[in-house]
Task: inverse folding
């Protein structure tokens, strides 16, 4: 099944696949103090190495049908805002579908992550992508990433469990929403 969302839209953005030419545009996110840590990357990498890792992983996902990040392009200005996508992940021993989002610093605190995450959640449940993943969606978030925690809560997710990952000294938590909880959100609108 294809979890790439090329051509989908939010209120303000359209989605397209990541291209090699996007590298320079994406570099600023890795100049921010905690970004690499919040993304689970090893310490000590240069900005360029972090960005390379990101791109390698993104293209690997595309090639291996593991979902992937889509570039968010602002519909009016045509600016690259961030990346978002549905990602197939191994989370605490289970195959799960994750709602992922990363926004360029110049667009932080403007609601783009909330907008994208809600759209991904709705697409995943409407297209029944969750059926292969225990009828739920997750977001795996670093314990200190308060912005992403707020996005997950806005998206109707609740804290499910700590992430069990002995290979990373940082602490991450799994937030989730079930199909049943999503249906309740829809009915409350």
Result:
């Amino acid at each position: 099944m294809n979890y790439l969302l090329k051509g989908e839209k939010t209120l303000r953005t359209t989605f397209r696949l990541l291209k090699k030419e996007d590298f320079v545009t994406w570099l600023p996110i890795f100049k921010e103090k905690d970004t690499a840590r919040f993304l689970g990357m090893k310490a000590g990498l240069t900005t360029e190495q972090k960005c390379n890792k990101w791109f390698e992983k993104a293209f690997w996902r595309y090639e291996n049908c593991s979902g992937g990040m889509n570039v968010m392009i602002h519909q009016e200005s045509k600016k690259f805002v961030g990346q978002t996508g549905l990602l197939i992940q191994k989370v605490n021993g289970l195959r799960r579908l994750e709602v992922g989002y990363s926004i360029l610093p110049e667009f932080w605190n403007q609601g783009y992550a909330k907008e994208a995450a809600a759209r991904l959640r709705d697409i995943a449940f409407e297209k029944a992508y969750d059926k292969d993943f225990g009828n739920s969606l997750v977001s795996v978030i670093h314990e200190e990433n308060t912005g992403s925690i707020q996005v997950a809560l806005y998206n109707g997710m609740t804290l499910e469990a700590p992430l069990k990952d002995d290979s990373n000294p940082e602490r991450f938590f799994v937030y989730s929403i079930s199909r049943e909880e999503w249906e309740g959100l829809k009915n409350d609108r």
